[in-house]
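Suppose a classmate hands you a notebook page containing two proteins, each written out with its sequence and a corresponding row of structure tokens. How would you begin to make sense of it? This section walks through that situation. The first entry is reproduced here exactly as it would appear on such a page.
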Amino acid sequence: MAPVDPHWLEGLPPIPDSWQLSDENAARLDRMMGRLPSQLRKSAYWTLRVSEVTNEYIAVIPAEGLTPGFQYAGVGFLDPDLDRVDPGTFGVIMYSTVEPTEQQERDIAVLTIEERFRFPVVWRTVFFEEHVSVTSAPGGSVACWARSRIKRPNPREGWLTAAHVVRSSRNNAVFSDGGVGQVVDQASVCIDAAVVSTSQPLTNRSKLTVTPAVPGLAVSFPQLAGGTVSATIWEVASTFGQLSSAHFPLRFAMDTQGVPGDSGSLISSTHGDIVGIYLGSYTSSSAQAVSYPTGGVGLSAEHLEALMGMEFYS
């Protein structure tokens, strides 16, 4: 996979003077504008706008037009190595666990917005791999300290990690610092995040700012074995306009992946803001390229903030 080129952001269409967004997405974009650097604001607008049109596109596709293993749609930069597009092309990726039909392989649909902006739709098969290590305890990483359900009388707090890291911890989770805890909050079956208590809580802490995940954003995450992985976000999943949905995870794909043991790590921006937590890698293929490791997958902190009423601390 070729890395994301920051210059691709310059090729995105300008933001219209009048936002063509739903009320919910307009309010979300307004918040995003205050959190994102100026060069990423076009990416934020077109991610939301194309997502809305994609939802309309999926709704009118006949049942036989969607493969049985359809997973989700991602919006962002397409991969020149996988898709029949020029570098820097912004569009929609339809992910499925089964091979695309002959028609899907042959035809690239195009979404036309405001009668002049065109965004291709490509199909890919995909396989996800959780990056939990079976040779180390606890088998994954923690991202940061978190407080969830903050608007309720009794908020939960503890270490934030991927839910699959502690899936096998029926009783106690053991941390590398000697702390022992239990899962005190979990998002939902569909959202891979959990908060785990500890007998050695973080005392001196400062609140982290949340930066939304948008295509082109440079991020990094620490590794369990040491070192740091630097990456750039390729695309962001469409959640059908529901940021606080317990059914549609706001995941994002990166152009670099970690290794087993990195699940649950904190994904942060170059300014140190939290962007999300690391979940694992994905392998993707298309009619134009054989299957190969494509990149890393993260879960958006913005989604957890809205869904679980969560605050994050370093």
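The notebook's second entry, a different protein, reads as follows.
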Amino acid sequence: MYSSDEKYEVVLKSATHINMSNWQITKTLDTMTMVNNKFVILSIINNLINEGVEKKDIFVTDKSFLISTNYKTYFENGNKFWGKQKDIVKMYSLGRLISMEPNEDIFRMNCLFEFYKKINSITNKNLKCRIRSIYLADSYDILFNESIEQAYEILLEGAKNQVCDVFERHISPDINKRDMIIKTLENQKDLCLERSRKKFKKMMTDSRKKFTYTYNRFDRPVVGVYHPDGHYMEIINADQMYKNGEESDTQIKLKKITKNSPVAIAMLVTGPMVAFLGYLLYREHNVNSQIDTEDLFDIPQNDEGAINNILGSDDGNLLDTDNVKEVDAQVKEMAHYNLNKLEIATNKRVVHLEMNMENEITMETK
């Protein structure tokens, strides 16, 4: 009952004395989608930790993914980025990486991408061009075997060569302007290195708190795994980003919105969200259903128990089973925060919650 591999029709009906405006309907749908996606990510993270992936290799970026971008060009060849010429700029564009625990490799990557951002802004301002991705890829290749300074130097030399190439194509090149740009680029190396070391060392020291804060703050976080054996990254929620999640198996699907009084929002839900909604249905609402008394006693009596059951079982089952894995404390903390968002969206003073397994009896609330 109420497990991740089941699909339910979930209906939210506005309370009879409170009608929902258009913006409230939109906000409710956005919140349900956000909470659903975040529970999916937390389930994946917990599974990875239980499979032996080190927490220091799990990261969130400091940029939320955009609903105005379908990310087709990002993930048309899969969800792994290897740091080569064809995908290094995609890695950079995702944002700074914040790991669950301190990670020296991720610290180095943040430092390199910060330098690229800085000198890229200089060439863009003066020459209206971006530094070629091959130079960033070359510096990334040596980043983990050599010093950060050497990686900076390779990127800097590539940028200077590109500036020279641009001016060599001019019929009457402005040598003074060329030298000024090159000098400006050179001056950024030591300054950016010092600032980046200080900034990202602090971020690395506070990584646990920073990861949780960033994950909770963003409605659409980008989460991935860094693979130190090949120095590549894998985005674990790429399906939520690709084509705006249209092809994701765990994405909420809107069935219909009825604007008669009361307003009714019908959705198809699967994944961990099913069990969390089932938990709130029995905890917060009076339910008319034919449920076995034995199963009723197995329903968790508090949020902690629900999170342990749902995120700790292979099938995301709400009921207490013997097949339960440990739920990481940090994952649990973020799950509590996410569950609170779901509680607000399904507040029984504002909406009535109904759940109906496809082709089965409706679970109605009073």
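A careful reader of the second entry would note: DSSP finds 13 helices and eleven strands in the chain.
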